[in-house]
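User: I'm putting together notes for a lab meeting next week and I want to include a structural view of one of the chains we've been expressing. I don't have a solved structure, so I'd like a prediction I can at least talk through. The sequence is below, exactly as it appears in our construct file.
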Amino acid sequence: MSDVSSKKKELERLKTEIKRKLGNGNFWFHEDKEGKIKGFLGASDLMIIGDRPATRKFRDVYIELFYKTLEDYKLENAHLTDFIKKVGKAGKWSIEDMKDSLKFLKEELDIVFPKGEPCRIICLGDRVYNWVCPFVLSLNDKANIQPSRHYAYRFGEKQEREKKFKDSFDKAYKEVMK
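Assistant: Thanks for the context. Below is the predicted structure for the 178-residue chain, given as structure tokens.
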């Protein structure tokens, strides 16, 4: 199943299952309106994991920064996902959210990184890195998981925040692709 079209087909199936399980509007699959960023349907050999879908539905400057960074690195086909699948406040979830999300994340890992393929993951934010590492490493002890500052970190001046995100993402990307 390591070819891109097979991966996309399996990700479409999983996306449908997530929608069915969570109900309409309770998730976000990271696709952009222009169709450049494939988001959840990205099937390359890199996965980028965020905390959980935000409660906001609009595209803001933080998302623009993230998508621009992905385009700069030619990562439009990276698999974008969230640790917790259901929309809500960052860092807050129920045990039921966790159970569903871990099941879905394991399926994503199996699809994006079939047996024998390198497992490369960038985690957006320390909290996600601390959650994802033990889980993924329990499934694949050769996984390369790197932390990056989250693109929506809101403290400090705009230019400083953007520079820190880009520097952090650059470091994580270089490490994960070794």
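A couple of points you could mention at the meeting. The chain is about 45% helix and 10% strand. The chain has a mean pLDDT of 86.

User: Perfect, that's what I needed.
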